[in-house]
# Entry
Amino acid sequence: MSAVGVRSVLLLGGTSDIGTAICRALVDRGATRVVLAGRDPVGLALRAATLKHVNIEVSLLDFDVVDSSRHRDLIDRATEMVGDLDVVICAVGVLADEQGIDADPVAIARVVAVNMGGTMGVMAAASSRLQHQGHGTLVVLSSVAGFLVRSDNPIYGASKAGLDAYACALDDLLRPSGASVLVVRPGFVRTAMTAGMADRPMATTADAVAAAVVKGMDHDAHVVWVPRPVGLVMNGLRLLPRSILRPLLRRQQ
# Structure
């Protein structure tokens, strides 16, 4: 679905810097109804204040991604608020406290439950709605970390890899109905979540990701890389034998 025709947006992970930037970009293109869903009511209210303009309606919903029993109800409630969902943005995720082989199994399970298990559940509920509508785009924030899982962030990377694979499969399932999935694979993004971390090569911003998402929607893309050159680099690296790739990845740590 082109960004030009978007009128309603549901942001899952309503306090996400990247997700909010995408909402702002869609509002600038004509969206008039936005639903922010998340766990932090104060944070949601602050985000809503940054989106409110003349003729823009912003609603808030309580949403916990690991509570899978409420995912379908959440999508139903959002639909009751704004009608058909033109865009659903899935911007849910947590970073892992990476300890390599010594990582806490409980911490691993939590990261996977949020980044993959719970997120896949709400993506399924949203996809079902878009399929029923016969239109709409599910925008899924993946990561280059999930495309090529490195030894310095295996937990986060593996959880994003599962999410990314599922999103690509959902796109194949939805396309015949007229709906679609746009998988977004940014490199290092300067946000509140990455504050204090050293920049990676080709670091980018939330606004740059938002601009790439809007452009991708306009071109009916399946995947967008942000910045675009990072996709060329990652695809090239993944073709290398692991014996060659391993030391290259170590030097990037």
User: Anything to note?
Assistant: Residues 105-133 form the longest helix (29 residues). The CA atoms of residues 34 and 58 lie 5 Å apart. Strands lie at 8-12, 33-38, 57-62, 87-90, 137-141, 180-186, 189-190, 204-205, 223-226. The chain has one domain: 3-251.
